[in-house]
Sequence to fold (169 residues):
Amino acid sequence: MSFLELVKQRSSVRAFSGRAVEPEKLEYVLECARLAPSAVNYQPWRFFVASAAEARQVLQRCYNREWFTSAPLYILACGDASQSWKRGNDGKDHMDIDVAIAVEHICLAAAEQGLGTCWVCNFDAALCQQELKLPENLIPVAIIPLGYPAGTAEKKGSRKSMVDIVEQL
Ligand SMILES: Cc1cc2nc3c(=O)[nH]c(=O)nc-3n(C[C@H](O)[C@H](O)[C@H](O)COP(=O)(O)O)c2cc1C
Fold:
């Protein structure tokens, strides 16, 4: 599969079958996150895997949607604000960018393995931090449900055309 085909294949999955994710596939997607690039190679991220019932319920309370409960496991991607690169001239924190690259590696790797994911950022990050007793520097950025898609895949959202997003300087 070419990279373009993989990119086209990935779309947000919001319905999962009951099939468990094989440990080697979970390890594969996490390895793809681990190898992601980051500013100054600081790698300011931590990934928490929630597959046990109690841990899954914590994340389900943080993102209270019926579809979300069908995922057999979740990866909570956190940024470490104490480790991220801040640009010297204006202090811009690159933590979110770094975590986003790693998370998209997870989503693309999962798609390649026949697994489904969906970026979830519209969750209660404060509740998540509190329930998981995360240290202040660890900021929950995204929750990625991971599992085998149930039924037919959702249609990929439409995209702006090339002329709308690219221009010559
Ligand atoms: C940063 C980010 C945050 C997102 N947060 C949510 C979310 O909280 N809930 C949700 O259902 N989808 C969420 N999405 C999924 C987007 O809605 C989806 O990627 C977009 O509609 C394009 O569709 P596609 O992923 O199928 O190509 C998020 C996506 C991104 C990149």
